[in-house]
Design a protein that fits this description.
The protein contains ten helices and two strands, in the order ααααααααααββ. By secondary structure, it is an all-alpha fold. The protein has one domain (2-266). The protein has a two-stranded antiparallel ribbon. Helix 4 (65-97) runs parallel beside helix 10. It is globular and about 60 Å long.
């Protein structure tokens, strides 16, 4: 039961932190809960399919199918996060300073909601498929009872959800004038971390050069497999022993997102209006 709890908590924590960031980043957009719930549901279904065909995927493309698949879904998430970051930079001020026409804002946000729903689905699918495979291994090797595994899995899921909710509530305490800036930076770091992971996966399969195996090693300070290490891995792409290509992908993605957001900032929001957040009105000044 303890092994199941730890595995579910460890794997779902990463997906849960992504969901927490997405919930905060879509604050003020109508329909966000439906979109995110749809992403979670699609991710769960995807995880079951990936787990069922794990051997087929791994054996595809001359034995590097798993690496290509993992890198592909990570890069898809990077693309979605980059789009959202640019969109929110362009429209975020309007959402906070001129949401009297809330229906219009929701319509503007449809594409961004879809993008982040895909990111949520990818995160849940990725971690969920690993959970299924790990738990299958435990069931076969340790012969744990189904009831014990169920209880351990539920406990791990509840703990991961609690930590993710704490992150979300913490983000919601940020003053509105700084809110979109903070969430945009979190989205940018999340995308950069995923790009670095994709590069590391491709390098490990010898599909791209590694440009150095270990640029540094901070495992003695914070190991990748520790709970804090995994949390930072999900949030900002932390790696105790990054390769050169991993760092290059991280920095390049971050630079691209920052450049796009700087470009998007050229469009100024209209002055005046009323923002609505958390049931309260915020008067904006020109």
């Amino acid at each position: 039961m303890l092994a199941t709890l730890l595995i579910v908590f460890r794997e779902m924590l990463e997906a849960g932190l992504v969901v927490g960031i997405v919930l905060a980043a879509t604050e003020g957009l109508t329909g966000r809960m439906i979109a995110i719930a749809g992403g979670v549901a699609a991710g769960v279904c995807g995880a079951a399919i990936v787990a069922a065909f794990a051997d087929v995927i791994a054996g595809a493309a001359e034995g590097v199918g798993q690496e290509l698949f993992t890198a592909g879904v990570l890069l898809a998430a990077v693309g979605m996060l980059t789009f959202h970051s640019a969109w929110m930079t362009r429209h975020g001020r309007k959402l906070s300073a001129d949401l009297s026409a809330l229906g219009k804002a929701a319509a503007l946000g449809d594409k961004s909601l879809l993008a982040l729903a895909v990111v949520v689905g990818i995160a849940v699918m990725r971690e969920g498929s690993e959970v299924v495979l790990f738990l299958y291994g435990i069931a076969v090797s340790a012969h744990e009872s189904p009831f014990a595994m169920l209880m351990g899995g539920l406990a791990g899921l509840v703990l991961a959800a609690a930590v993710s909710y704490a992150l979300y509530r913490g983000l919601m305490t940020i003053p509105m004038r700084h809110f979109f800036t903070v969430t945009n930076w979190l989205i940018a770091l999340l995308a950069a971390g995923m790009a670095g992971q994709a590069a590391a996966v491709l390098a490990s399969a010898d599909l791209i050069p590694s440009w150095g195996e270990r640029i540094w090693n901070t495992s003695f300070i914070l190991a990748d497999d520790s709970w804090l290490g995994r949390a930072l891995h999900a949030l900002v792409g932390y790696s105790a022993m990054p390769s050169g290509i991993q760092m290059a992908a991280y920095v390049a993605t971050l630079a691209i997102i920052v450049s796009l957001t700087k470009f998007a900032q050229h469009e100024k929001p209209r002055a005046g209006g009323t923002a609505i957040r958390g049931g309260s009105k915020i008067e904006a000044r020109g």
